[in-house]
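User:
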Amino acid sequence: MPSDHLPSDAPHPSHDAAHDAAPGSGPRVERRSLLRLGALLAAGGAAALVPAPVAHAATRGQGTDTVTTTYRGRSPYGTDQWAYVPFDVPAGVRRISVATTHDAAAGILDLGIFGPAGFRGWSGGARSGFTLSAADATPGYVPGPVEPGAWSVILGPMVGSAGGMDWQVDVTVHLGEPLPRTPYDILPGSVAGRGPGWYRGDLHLHSVHSDGQRTVEEIVAAARQEGLHFIATSDHNTSSTGVTWRGNIPTDLLVVNAEEVTTRHGHWLAVGLPQGEWVDWRYGPADQGAFEGQVRRVHSLGGLTIAAHPLTPAAGSFWEFGLDRVDALEVWNGPWTLDDAANIAAWHVMLCLGKRVAAVGNSDAHSPADAVGRPHNVVYAAGLSTPAVLDALRLGRSYAVESAAVTLDFTARTGGAVAGPGEELPLSFFDAVDVTLNVTGAPDSIATLYTEWGIMAATCIDGSGTGQLRWRGWGKASLFARAEVRRPKPASTTLDQLVAITNPVWFYSAQLPPYDVERRVLFHTERRPDGSWSGMRPLPGAADAGSGSVSGSFAGVQSAVAGMADGSAVVLGIAPDNGLWLTVVRDSATLQPWQRVTGPDGSSGFAVREADIAAFPDGTCQIVVTAMDGTAFHQQRRADGGLPGFRALPGFTAKSRWGATKVSIAALPDGSAQLLGYGTDGAMYHCARGRDGAWTAWGRLPGYDGAPTFSGPALAITGMPDGSSQVLAIGLDGMVYHQLRRPDGSWTGFRPPRGVTTATMGASAIGIAGTPDGSAQVVAVGLDGRIWHAVRRPDGSWTPFSQIPGPNGRDSFPAGQVRITALRDGSTHVTAISAG
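Assistant: Predicted structure:
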C-alpha cells in the first residue's frame, strides 16, 4: 500500500507535500464540527468550471530533472465554486507533486487533480499537497503512468471572507527513468460458504484515502472486533481506496468498494462500485439531469445509492436533490443526535406517502475515536456476497442497531403468511395481522411500534435487555408497521438514544397506486337527537398564508372534537406535517378559520403526534397533546378563545415530565378533568386535574381478565353527568374494551362489548362521548374500515353497532381515525379521517 512518503529510489520533489499533509498532523476536529463549518459560509453562486484566475506564475529548475511552477491566485467569497490550474506535462515525466498554501482564516481549499485521461485523485481539504507516479501515490490519489499532455489541479475554495481568499499552488514535475507499476488485488464478490442469513455491516467508513485516520487494514481490524460481516470503504470523491488492496484482502469479511460523493448540495454513497470507478461530484440541483445521470450510472454498475446524513444542517452537507431519488436514506449517522431524529421524522413522512425508500444506519467513522460499526445494519441476504447484500439493502430487508450486542426479530403474520422488514404482507380488509418484535441486548429501553397513524404500542425492556412487543392490526387499516427501540437516557443533543430501528413491513400491494397521505381528509357529521345522521362532509382547509384563500379540504392524520355549551364544536386537526390546528363548527358551517396552535415556547412550528380536547361547563376547553419526543403537554383554552400556551404535564416526581404515546382528556361536571394515556412503557395510566389546576399522581390501570396492565394502540375517556367516567380502549389483540370509573374512584374492570356479528368488536380506532341522559355514544372503525356506532345505556346494556353513513348518505366510508363528542341537546358530533 502506498505511503505518504516517496520511495527511496524515486526523485524527491523540492517540497514533500504529502508528508506535510499527512492525516492527523495537526489539531483534530470532531467530524460533525467539520460538517457544520460550512454552515458559517453563505453559499455563493456556482462558478463556471473554468481555469482559475491566476495572478502570477513562475517556473524554476528549467533544464533539470525537477521543474517547479508556482501559481498564485485569488478566489471570491462563496462555497459553490470550482477552479482549475492547468499545466502541461512533457514526455519523460515520471512523477507529479503538488503543494498548496492558502489564507486559512479566509476559508478552506479543497484539492484534487485531473490528467489527460480524466480523474487522478482528490483529497478535499484533508491535505495541502500530494504526489503521484506509476509506482505509488499519496492516499486519495491514483497510482498510474504520468501521461504527457494537459493536466489540471482542481481547487474547491470554500471562502467565508467577504474579501476573498489568496492561494498558491506549486506544481513539480520529475523526469527520469520509467517507474514500475504496482498491480492491485481484486476484491472478491463473496465470502465462501455463507448462505442465506442475517449479516452485519457498516457502509460508511473513511480511511487515510480521504479525511479518515485509519488505514484499510485498521478498518478491517476494527470491523472484526465489532463482529461485522461486511464493510464498505467510502472515501470522499476518490477511487484510490479501491486500487490499493495488495495482499491485505480479508478472507472472513466482505469488502464492498464505495465512494462518498461529496457535492456542495449534499453527500451520497455510491456503494458497490467496481474498483477504479469514480463518480463525479461537480453539479447541483440546478444542473438538469446531472444527479439523475450519476445515479443511473451507479445502478448500471450494480451499485446502490444512499443519501448520507441528509438533514445535517450545514452548507454542502444538507441534502438538496430530493429524498426519494435514492435507494436508501442514512437516517442514523454515527452517535445519535438531533440530526438523526430529523432524518427519521422525514423518512417516516415518506413512508406515509407510500414511498418505499429503505433506511440504513452507519458509523461514518473517521478517526480512531469513532467506533466502526456503531451503528450498523443487520441485513437478511441470500448469501454474504456484494450483489445479495445490496439487493437486500435496496429492498429494506434490514434493520439498524447501535452495536453488535443488539438483535431484533420483527415479523408480521396473517394466517400462514409471514413477512419481515422490507417485505410485503398483502391483506384483505378482514384479515387480522399480528406484529411481533423480539428484542435482545437492549437493557433499560423502550420498544415502540409505529404505523402511519402514529404509535400503536410500546413496552419497557428491563435490565435483562430482552423483551417482546405484540400488536394486532386489521387488514388495510394500516399501510405499514415499523419498530424502534430507544433508551430514555440523554445523548449529546437529545433526551434519548436510539438503540435500533427497523425498516417497515408493508401491508399494501406494490401494484396499487401510490398511497398519498394528502388524500386523508378530515370529515365531520352530526347525529341528531332523534338518532338520524347528517351526511359526512369534508371540512374546508386552512387559509393560504399569502392570499388568504381557502383551497380544498383539511388534509389530516388525526382529529379530536369537543362539544360546547352554545351548540358549537371545537375541532382539532393534525396536519400531515404534524402541525396542530383548531377551528369551530356549528351544524354544517365553519365559524372561524383554522388557527395553528403554537408550541410551549410560542413557536409556530410545534409538531405533535396525538391530541385530544374536552369542553367544560364554563365555556373553556382543555387540550392535551404528545410532542414528537413523547412529552405530554396541557393547556386551557379560555372562553373567549384565547390560548395561554402549553405546559408540560408532571411525571411521577415533582420535577419530571410525563411521557406518553397516546393521550385523552375528559371533562367532569364539577370542572375537574381526567386524563388517560399510554405511558412510554406502553401501560395505561390515569390521573385527574382539579378545578384549582392541581394534578393527582399517575395511577396504572390493571388489564383485562386479571392482566397486570392494559396496553394497546388506542384509548378514549369521557365524563358522565353523575361524576363517573367511562374508558374505551383497543387492546393489543385488536379488540375493543370498556370500563367505568365510579364517582368514588373505583373501577369496574375492562369488559369487551359485543361486535357487529361476533362476540367481540375488532377495531382500529375508537371514540366515546357521555350524553346528558347518562348514556355513552361509542364510535369505532371496524375491521371493514367503516365507522360503526353504538350506545351504552345508563343501565349498562348496549345497542347493536350500526354503520354511520358516509358522504351523500352512502353506507361505505373507509376511515382511519374517528372521534366523537356530545352536546347538551343530546346530539353528537363525529370527526373522522378518511383512509385515503
